[in-house]
């Protein structure tokens, strides 16, 4: 079969396909290489922490939120640890913060390569066609993955699909195209840095106004305008936007006094100064908890070798333990509080299971895919894993899970089930 | 053989292998999309992201920049020291930074679906618009103050040069 090239005029039609159309003297392989090199580690951190977040759900125990349990080749072969207790706060804080930092850099990088979208002829060969198709996956994938994540942390869902699988599998498309792009463009980056130095153009030229020399087939302009902005100003502006965005992520991930400086951070404010004034992922009202469900008639049903039911007073009469543990959300915010309650392993022992293989925790909440969660053997065995009844010396508020909630070190916040109704301990 | 492939394909066999591997993994991602809720909606948003950036946002911000440059170019009627210090970046930098803040946090700033945010978190969105306006104000004010300082310095330098000549 012979591939017949489409017949197109040799001379590009007027408009953005003509090399003279693009006039910014700042564009060139060096500038694009600099933005690209800044993005590479951010994308790597964001991707690794994203896959770690899926691993933290212990998908092997049936906790995956992906359709079909996320089997296929997205399986995880290690049990999520409980040490250090701030592990998930760090990985997920990094995930959201690195994503926020990357967005201004991504847009700047797209600006710097925009002439390539209109290159002429549009297709030179089969390899060129495939490369351009892959670039569509790269640009579409990057915008899709970063902006769905960005809107998710603000709880804004204007789309018809489910966020988590779309974000997760969108990242497969993005990362596949990204890896190819890095591989194919590495020689271009190395050449630009070799010829001009990594920061050479910022140092050698005190007014930062010498343009990159014109070379056909690159983004350097054929007929540039006189410069109106120095390279240093452009890079400083993009850097400031990235650092500002990243600061919003860091403020809500680190919390404490820093939180209130995250002026646009989705979880940048406290609810109140009281012991229960810290951040909430889902209020009782949002998941349909009725006050009648958590009144005097509430019982915790425990199942193991036998079954028992405990009132809240009976739970309070058991040995209590207090631990400072962070609660860290998949949306990148965390907050460390002082929790008091009964150790999970003591509850297991109360129903005759000494070293449980897992525990299935069920919540009173009616809605939500996480109303039932399975914790691993390691998570139950950790002596800081509690069924918390009190926080910061006060009873839990209804929004924080009254009458009782789970708190497990290093577990994602959605696994620290609130309004617990039953726990089923399974022996090894 | 490799030479013939290179001539027909336009790149080395290694290129072809890398492209095929990349498309296979991307294809897996798309396949999983298609098994989720609303595969068509997912594809549509994917494509819309490209169109929104390349064919809407980029032309729009480029046109705004051209407009601003055009408006600032015809400044012949102004005092000489005002013409000597270019104003464009004192406009561009705060505009880029506050625009980026709006682009990234528009759901909270504009209070889109604030009912859901408030129901879930117990927090209000009322403060975000005000804080964003505050950020805009601080950026433009700071940029203006630096511009004023540069004008003063340019004026002084010009007068110094005149004195040295006379």
What would your notes on this structure say?
The complex is a heterodimer of chains A (428) and B (166). Chain A has 428 residues and is α+β, with helices and mostly antiparallel strands. Chain A folds into two domains: 19-260, no CATH class; 291-427, Oxidoreductase, molybdopterin-binding domain (Sulfite Oxidase, Chain A, domain 2), CATH 3.90.420. Chain A contains ten helices and ten strands. In chain A, the strands form two sheets. A five-stranded mixed beta sheet of chain A has the order 2-1-10-5-6. In chain A, strands 3, 4, 7, 8 and 9 form a five-stranded antiparallel beta sheet that branches. In chain A, β3 and β4 form a beta hairpin. In chain A, α1 runs antiparallel to α2 (87-112), α1 (29-56) packs antiparallel against α5 and α2 packs antiparallel against α7 (231-254). Chain A is elongated and about 85 Å long. With 166 residues, chain B is an all-alpha fold. Chain B folds into three domains: 1-36, no CATH class; 38-73; 77-166. Chain B has seven helices and no strands. Chain B has helices at residues 2-9, 13-35, 39-73, 80-84, 88-109, 114-121, 126-165. In chain B, α2 crosses α3 (39-73). Chain B is flat and about 80 Å long. The interface between A and B is large, with 78 and 65 residues.
Which sequence of SSEs, written as H and E, runs from N to C of chain A? Answer: HHHHHHHEEHEEHEEHEEEE
Beta-strand residue percentage of chain B: under 5%
Summarize the largest interface: chains and residue counts. Answer: A-B, 78 and 65 residues
The number of strands of chain A is: 10
**Low-confidence parts of chain B, pLDDT < 50 over ≥5 residues?**
none
| Shape assignment of chain B | flat
The assigned structural class of chain B equals: mainly alpha
Sheet with most strands: strand arrangement of chain A: 2-1-10-5-6
Radius of gyration of chain B: 27 Å
Number of domains of chain B: 3
């Amino acid at each position: 079969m012979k591939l017949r090239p489409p017949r197109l005029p040799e001379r590009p039609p007027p408009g953005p396909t003509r090399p003279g159309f693009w006039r910014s003297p700042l564009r060139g392989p060096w500038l694009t290489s600099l933005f690209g090199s800044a993005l590479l580690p951010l994308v790597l951190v964001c991707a690794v922490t994203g896959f770690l977040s899926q691993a933290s759900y212990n998908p092997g125990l049936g906790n995956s939120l992906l359709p079909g349990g996320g089997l296929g080749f997205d399986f995880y072969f290690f049990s999520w640890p409980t040490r250090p207790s701030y592990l998930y706060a760090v990985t997920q804080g990094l995930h959201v913060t690195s994503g926020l930092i990357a967005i201004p850099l991504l847009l700047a990088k797209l600006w710097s390569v925009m002439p390539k979208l209109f290159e002429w002829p549009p297709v030179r060969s089969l390899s060129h066609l495939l490369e351009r198709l892959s670039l569509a996956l790269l640009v579409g994938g990057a915008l899709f993955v970063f902006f769905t994540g960005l809107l998710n942390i603000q709880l804004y869902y204007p789309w018809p699909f489910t966020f988590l699988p779309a974000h997760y599998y969108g990242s497969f498309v993005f990362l596949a195209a990204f890896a190819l792009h890095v591989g194919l463009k590495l020689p271009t980056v190395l050449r630009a840095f070799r010829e001009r130095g990594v920061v050479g153009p910022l140092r050698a030229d005190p007014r930062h106004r010498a343009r990159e020399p014109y070379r056909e087939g690159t983004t350097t302009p054929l007929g540039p305008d006189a410069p109106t902005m120095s390279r240093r100003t452009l890079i400083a502006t993009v850097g400031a936007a990235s650092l500002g965005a990243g600061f919003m992520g860091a403020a809500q991930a680190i919390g404490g006094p820093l939180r209130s400086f995250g002026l646009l951070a989705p979880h940048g404010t406290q609810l109140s100064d009281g012991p229960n004034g810290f951040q909430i992922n889902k209020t009782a009202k949002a998941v349909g908890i009725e006050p009648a469900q958590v009144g005097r008639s509430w019982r915790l049903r425990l199942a193991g070798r036998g079954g028992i039911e405990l009132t809240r007073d009976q739970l309070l009469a058991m040995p209590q333990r207090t631990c400072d543990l962070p609660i860290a959300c998949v949306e990148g915010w965390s907050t460390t509080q002082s929790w008091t309650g009964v150790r999970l392993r003591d509850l297991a022992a109360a129903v005759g299971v000494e070293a449980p293989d897992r525990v299935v925790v069920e919540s009173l909440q009616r809605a939500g895919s996480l109303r039932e969660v399975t914790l691993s053997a390691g998570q139950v065995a950790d002596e800081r894993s509690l069924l918390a009844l009190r926080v910061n010396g006060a009873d839990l508020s209804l929004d924080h899970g009254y009458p009782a909630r789970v708190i497990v070190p290093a577990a994602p916040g959605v696994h620290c089930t609130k309004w617990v109704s039953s726990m089923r301990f399974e022996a090894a | 053989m490799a030479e013939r492939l290179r001539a027909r394909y336009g790149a080395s066999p290694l290129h072809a292998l890398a492209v095929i591997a990349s498309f296979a993994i991307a294809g897996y991602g798309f396949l999983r999309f298609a098994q989720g809720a609303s595969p068509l909606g997912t594809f549509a948003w994917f494509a819309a992201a490209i169109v929104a950036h390349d064919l809407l946002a980029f032309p729009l911000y480029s046109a705004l920049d051209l407009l601003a440059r055009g408006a600032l170019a015809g400044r012949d009627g102004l005092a000489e020291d005002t013409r000597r210090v270019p104003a464009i970046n004192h406009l561009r930098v705060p505009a880029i930074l506050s625009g980026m803040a709006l682009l990234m946090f528009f759901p909270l700033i504009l209070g889109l679906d604030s009912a859901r945010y408030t129901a879930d978190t117990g927090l209000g969105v009322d403060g975000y618009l005000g804080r964003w306006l505050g950020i805009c104000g601080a950026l433009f004010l700071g940029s203006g103050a630096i511009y004023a300082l540069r004008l003063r310095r340019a004026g002084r330098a010009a007068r110094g040069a005149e004195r040295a000549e006379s």
